[in-house]
Amino acid sequence: MRDTSSINDMRDALMAAIIDLAKEHKEVVFLDADLSSCINSGSFKKEFPDRFFNVGIAEANMVGVASGLSSMGFVPYAHSFGCFSSRRAYDQFYLSANYAGQTVHLIGTDAGVTAQINGGTHMPFEDVGLMRLIPELIVLDPSDTQSCYELTLQAFETGHCSYTRLRRKGATHRYAPGQVKLGKANVLAEGQDLAIVATSEVIVNEAEKAVDMLAKKGIKATLIDMHTIKPLDTEILDKVSKETGHVLVCENARYAGGLGEAVAAHLATTYPAKMDFVCVGEQFGEVGKLDYLMKAFHFNAEDMVAKAEALVRR
Predict the structure, then answer these.
(1) 141, 111 in Cβ contact below 8 A?
(2) Strand order of the sheet with strand 274-280?
(3) Which of 86, 115, 178, 190 is the most exposed place for a label (fewest CB within 10 A)?
(4) Non-local CB neighbours of 114 within 8 Å, separated by 6+ positions
C-alpha cells in the first residue's frame, strides 16, 4: 500500500491508485474524454500505452466503449469532468454498464464548487443524486489523498461499478495508510451535543474548523467523514443520532438526492433526530474562485457553526 503524503493533487492520488492496479491486473484500462492534461492521465499512458484510450469529447460514447471493453474481460476506468460523467453519460452508464452487469469505474472530477472558474455549466451538484439512483452502484467522495487512493483500490476489489467524484487540483493529507475502509465512515472528532456528517474534501476541511470553533463556544460535536456515500454507513448514523439527537449534514452537492436526503430518509426509520443541512438548494452553479464559491454557497466553517448553534437550541 502506498503512502500518499507526498502527493499534492487529488488527481495524482487517483492516478497513482489506478496505475498500481494496472501493474497487478493486466485487464485494467483507462479511457479519457480529451482531458488527459486535466487529470494527468498521461502518466498511465506512459506506462501502458496500449491500454490507454482517448475517445475525444464524447462522454456518452466513452462509457459505451468502456462497457464494451468490460464485456470482453477488461476493467475500464473512464474519466471526464463530473458534469459530463454524470449528466451527459448517464443513460449509457445506467444501461450499458450497470444494468448490463458490466464493471466500469466512472470518475467525475471538478465536483461541485471545485469546478471554480469553469462555472455553472461545469459545476455538478446533482451528480450524487443521479448516481445514488443506480442499483448497487458504489458512490465515493474522498476527503484526502490517502482515502482517494485506498478507496479506489477497494472499489476495484468489489467487482461492482463505481462513481468517484473529487477535486482535481490541490489536496489534503488526513489519513495514514490503512485507516480508510469502503462503506465505513471515519470518526474525526467525538462530542455529545451534535453530530456533523460531512463528505467531500473541501467540506470536511471546513467541518474540522467548525468543530474547533464550536468547542470554544461550549458545544461538543462529533465529526463523521462519510467518504462512502453509497453504500451508506447506517450503523454510525444510528449511533450518533441516538447519542446526540442533533445531526447536521454538510456536502458539496444538492440536497435533492444528496447525502443529506439519504441520511434523513434513513434516520426517519430508526433514530429520528433534529436535523439541518449545509448543501445546495434550488440554485445553479456560478463562476468564481474556490474561496468565493465556498462563501457564496454558505459552505464555510462559519456557516456550519451558525447552523449547528441554531440546531442544538431547537
Answers:
(1) yes
(2) 186-189, 221-225, 194-198, 246-254, 274-280
(3) 178
(4) 167, 168, 202, 252, 290
Q: What structural domains and CATH numbers belong to the chain? A: 10-166 (3.40.50.970), 186-313 (3.40.50.920)
Model confidence over 249-287: pLDDT tens digits?
A: 999 999 999 999 999 999 999 999 999 999 999 999 999
The span from the CA of 116 to the CA of 111, in Å, is 10
Q: Which residues contact 200 (CB under 8 A, 6 or more apart)?
A: 111, 112, 141, 143, 165, 167, 251, 252, 253
Would you say 70 and 102 are in contact if contact means Cβ atoms under 8 Å apart? yes
DSSP for 14-74 reads HHHHHHHHHHH-TTEEEEESS-HHHHTTHHHHHH-GGGEEE--S-HHHHHHHHHHHHHTT-
Strand duo 75-81 + 28-32: pairing = parallel
pTM (two decimals): 0.96
Angle at 117 between CA 199 and CA 168, to 5 degrees: 45
Strand 52-54 versus strand 28-32 pairing type: parallel
List, as own/partner pairs, every contact residues 116-122 make where C-beta atoms lie below 8 angstroms and the sequence separation is at least 24, other chains included. Answer: 116/287, 116/288, 116/289, 116/290, 116/293, 117/287, 117/288, 117/289, 118/81, 118/287, 119/285, 119/286, 119/287, 120/284, 120/285, 120/286, 120/287, 121/83, 121/285, 122/81, 122/83, 122/285
Per residue in 151-176, pLDDT (tens digit) is 999 999 999 999 999 999 999 999 99
State the cell numbers at 310: 441554531
